[in-house]
Every structure is written in structure tokens, then in C-alpha cells.
Amino acid sequence: VVSPQTGRPTLAVKLPTTDAAAAAVDAERRMLQHVEAAVGDLGGVVPRSLGDVEHEGRRGLVTLALAGVPMTTAYLRRGHTACPRRVGRDFALVGRWLEGFQRATAGDRAPLDMDGGVVARLRARFNGDPGLEADLERLGAIHARLGRSAVPRTAVHGDLWCGNVLVDGGAVTGVVDWEAGVPSGEPVRDLVRFAVMYALFL
């Protein structure tokens, strides 16, 4: 929703049109409520839920609109990803925000667990592949080695990529789309997700 006076967005409204989309909006609503109850809006960077709106029998979500433009706007400009300085700046911006977010939501320490159901999904998806068992055995050894380190559990965004990060004036001004988030989980997920998605879009 854009103000006719300023031309700037004031509200963001998510209106689901399918049952699956409605479940995603409900998940985002719960996650935003958790983050706000735990640490507030982190300086206006996390959308603040203002309530619900019904649309064709499904419940939508209304939040305050956040300032900035998606990081993808610069990312997709010609030559951006060919410049190490620009790429480094992208990672530094997200790294600073993520460090503060994880510090604000940190809880008890637990062994690093990078499985999170990955082995089961790989087994289901590639069932019958002759190399699967050997790959899973190597992956299990990696998980076991990582599990010897303990890290604090934190809130996890779950889909941290440059399209969900808003920037303005050399700073992160918003992080949106929280439907894949969890209140307490493996903090390395967001680190890995951002790096992998940044490389994938190349």
C-alpha cells in the first residue's frame, strides 16, 4: 500500500490465494510474532505485524512496509558480481545484520546439527541411485565431525538470500519473507543459505 502523498510504501499485505500459501502466511505471522516478543523489531529491520485481513475466505497478513530496495537490484546490474569489492560489501552488510540478529536471539548451546532432515530427503529423492549410500556415509562423517562443536541456538530466518534483504544508504534496512523461519534452530543455516543462493544465481 503506497502513500499518495509521499509515493512511498506504508503497508505490506500478503494475501494467500491457495491453501499452501495460507499456511506459509500463517507460518510467517507466527515467526514475526515470536521475533517481536523476543527482541522487538531490531531497529525497524524486521517487519512488524499489524494484524490480519480476510481475502476470499483466507487470512492475510498486514505489516509495516520497510524502507530500502532488494539487494538483488544491485546484484543484477551489469558487472556487479564481477567486482570483488562489491561482492564483499554485500556479504559484509548481511554479515553485520546476521551477527546482531543471532546475538539478540541466542539461547542455549547445543552440538552443531547440519542434518535437519537432509539425509532423509536425499534418501527419498535419490532412492535407487547406486552412489547414494556411499555419499550418505561421507555426509554422515561430516555431520559427526561438525557435531563435535557446540553453538548457541538462535532464531533462524530460513530463506536468507539477497532478494529478501532490503538495503539503503549502505546498510540493511529490512529483512522480509519469514515463512521458513524457526524461533530456535541451527544458526549456520542462514550463513550457508545466503552464500549458496548468492553463488547459485550467478
In brief:
With 202 residues, this protein is of the alpha+beta class. The protein is 41% helix and 21% strand. The protein is built from six helices and ten strands.
Q: Which helices and strands occur, and which strands form pairs?
A:
Blueprint: E1 11-14, H1 19-39, E2 49-55, E3 58-64, E4 69-70, H2 72-75, H3 84-105, E5 109-111, H4 118-125, H5 132-146, E6 150-152, E7 154-156, E8 165-168, E9 171-175, E10 182-185, H6 188-200
Antiparallel strand pairs: 1-3, 2-3, 4-8, 5-6, 7-10, 8-9
Helix pairs in contact: 3-6
Structure description:
The chain is α+β, with helices and mostly antiparallel strands. The chain contains six helices and ten strands, in the order E-H-E-E-E-H-H-E-H-H-E-E-E-E-E-H. The strands form four sheets. The chain has a three-stranded antiparallel beta sheet, with helices on one face. The protein has a three-stranded antiparallel beta sheet with strand order 4-8-9. Strands 5-6 form a two-stranded antiparallel ribbon. The longest helix is centred in the middle third of the chain and has 22 residues, at about 85-105. The chain is globular and about 60 Å long. The model has no long low-confidence stretch (mean pLDDT about 95).
